Structure to design on (387 residues):
């Protein structure tokens, strides 16, 4: 439970503490087996219903590099990547996520993954020749939250395209940055991910201790994945990084020029959480893709954990721009290991949209001003009071 007396209120308006201020009364059991040593989020396998349409979006518009492709799947990577791929687009009947895949430090970490998830009673499958091209020995599980997680170490190395300026475009996507998952019970998810070796960097809470979202990392950035409170398990977005803000603006200009501005769902803007500059797009199946740049280093063991008040109107957008309702409500289905969509369970804790947008919600820019604000300025007034 949140105790803000134990946190430090910063001059930027959020709180910091040393340990993640999140506890759960509904924990996933902690396995006695140690977790695999996860290096980073490595790739996502997305099922798409029209491979040609998705190829136009990810290759022709966003400029990801094709490592390999056939009639069934396209293997894509970002500029700086040296492993086989960061995204697999696989043709299928239902748009969904087949795998959130993490790279582990050594081949032996796969034995640890098997032991860890077997102890949790999960569906665990190991394929010594990999589940997709370019990836060797792999373990796939349906994790305790219902997500299809994959772990691998061996992968084919491919050319890093950083020096190929002749091929770069103004909106160059240089790295896979993170996943974002929707799950009903965020504290339960956080505790399980901590057991898997992840550390919380930021979260959003209210002063009663309800947790609306949490960001967690293995690599020394703000996150490898985030848990967003909502009906789940579902995939909220997959995110690629650019080097600079202007690369994100160039993507917006290009989408406008192509008369594809309807692919832009939210942004561009500056996040409060993570401090990153962002843009959210929707692919031809509605899968959400974020483009993101300039978050911060988090690798020290005493990296401060940041807590945002859910009513702080600058938490999701530092400029106070509203979050569109679809961003809160829409997300992609995820599949079990046989390719069937996982059932979606409703969130029972309060929803962030309900407490911040519309007649019942309120938000502040300066907390002390709330009482004195005219009605038209209360709430996320740029959108909320129009709903
Ligand atoms: Fe994100």
């Amino acid at each position: 439970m949140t105790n803000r007396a134990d946190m430090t209120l910063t001059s930027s308006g959020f709180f910091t503490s040393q340990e993640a201020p999140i506890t759960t009364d509904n924990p996933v059991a902690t396995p006695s087996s140690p977790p695999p040593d996860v290096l980073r989020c490595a790739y996502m396998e997305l099922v798409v219903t029209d491979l040609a349409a998705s190829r136009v979006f990810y290759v022709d518009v966003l400029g990801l590099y094709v490592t390999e492709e056939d009639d069934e799947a396209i293997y894509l990577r970002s500029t700086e990547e040296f492993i086989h791929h960061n995204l697999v687009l696989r043709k299928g009947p239902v748009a969904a996520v087949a795998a959130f895949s993490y790279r582990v430090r050594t081949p032996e970490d796969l034995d640890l993954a098997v032991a860890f998830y077997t102890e949790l009673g999960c569906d665990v499958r190991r394929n010594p020749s990999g589940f997709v091209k370019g990836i060797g020995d792999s373990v796939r599980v349906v994790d305790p939250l219902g997500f299809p997680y994959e772990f691998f170490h061996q992968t084919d190395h491919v050319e890093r395209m950083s020096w190929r300026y002749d091929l770069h475009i103004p909106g160059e996507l240089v790295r896979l940055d993170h996943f974002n998952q929707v799950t009903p019970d965020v504290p339960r998810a956080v505790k399980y991910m901590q057991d898997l070796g992840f550390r919380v960097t930021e979260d959003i809470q209210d002063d009663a201790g309800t947790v609306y979202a949490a960001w967690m990392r293995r690599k020394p950035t703000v996150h490898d994945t985030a848990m967003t409170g909502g009906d789940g398990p579902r995939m909220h977005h997959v995110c690629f990084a650019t080097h600079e803000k202007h690369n994100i603006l160039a993507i917006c200009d290009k989408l406008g020029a192509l008369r594809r501005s309807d692919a832009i769902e939210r942004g561009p803007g500056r996040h409060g959480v993570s401090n990153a500059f962002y843009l959210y797009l929707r692919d031809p199946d509605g899968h959400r893709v974020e483009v993101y740049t300039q978050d911060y280093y988090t690798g020290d063991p005493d990296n401060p954990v940041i807590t945002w008040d859910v009513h702080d109107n600058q938490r999701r957008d530092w400029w106070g721009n509203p979050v569109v309702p679809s961003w809160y409500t829409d997300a992609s289905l995820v599949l079990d290991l046989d390719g069937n969509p996982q059932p979606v369970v409703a969130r029972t804790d309060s929803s962030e949209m309900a407490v911040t947008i519309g007649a019942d919600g309120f938000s502040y820019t300066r907390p002390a001003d709330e009482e004195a604000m005219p009605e038209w300025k209360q709430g996320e007034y740029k959108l909320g009071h129009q709903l």
Observations:
- The helical segments are 51-61, 109-119, 186-195, 245-257, 325-329, 352-356.
